[in-house]
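Worked example

This section walks through a single chain of length 333. The input is the sequence exactly as stored; nothing has been trimmed or padded.
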Amino acid sequence: MLSSKILPTLQNKKNLLAFSAGGDSTALFFLLLDANVDFDIAIVDYGLREQSKDEVLYAKELASKYAKECYIFSAKTIEKNFEARAREIRYTFFEELIQKYNYDNLLTAHHLGDRFEWMLMQFCRGAGCVEIAGMQVIEHRDNYKLVRPLLGMDKSELLDYLNDKNIKYFEDKTNLDESIKRNSFRHSYSNPLLKNYKDGIKKSFAYIDEDRKDLVQEVDLKVMDDFAYFPKSNSIRTNIYTIDKYLKSCGHLVSASEKELLKTKQTIIIGRKFLINNYKGFIFISPYIKNNIIMEKEFKEKMRIYKIEPKLRAYIYKNQNIYEFITKINNLY
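Given that input, the structure is written out below as tokens.
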């Protein structure tokens, strides 16, 4: 059932499956087995539901039965902003495993319903074509690929697969809580539309993906600790998309008003935490540090000669490797 287009990305690679024991990730687990794709699994226990203990046990059972590594992380209690914080914890755990064990791909079980639900939410908030396109089957991260093999499949197809094979999976009852906006969109809008117009929605996403390629080019974003940079594109849309994508990976969602400022400003502060600066053909993304530290005279003179944005100088002063990088740029240009 997995698309033949995605298999070359997975075969003969080290794959890590983000597993939850729910229907989606359990279906992906067995579909990968069917396709003879090698993989290990990782699961996060947030400790909110009694059932989560059984889900972890099921993950261990499957890993043992099919000779997979099973990595488990027990998260501390999340006091507020659960969804955003849980996502941050999840991906930090996965990326630590990827770095430690040299995985090539992180596989998630996002499916057509997840993508359509996201699209509707973005559309209602106010979004452009790139945001509406949303999730992609393959996304390139700093040192791995994020792969969503099920993105073209509907939830009903996955459940039919599991039921036909009598495969056990768990239902997370919090998915029925319509006080959560995502669940409300799913039950009230995306699920009914998918039930009646699934084939048309699949075709529409195929067209959107083609159009997206013309709007956004891939750029070579580099990360040095908590500092990121990339060559400035002639496409403002590409620059904003790249900034948005990186900050999202840092747990920050760029607002519509901030995106408008990015179109015209050379330097802006995002969410009081990040500084975006255009400099000599590059775009820098750094943590924002208030410029209230005492800097050496020689350093300040260098920053003046290099014409470095004043709001960025405190961060550079505290990070020798970034200072050396800035010096290298000025020697080259």
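What to look for: The mean pLDDT is 92.
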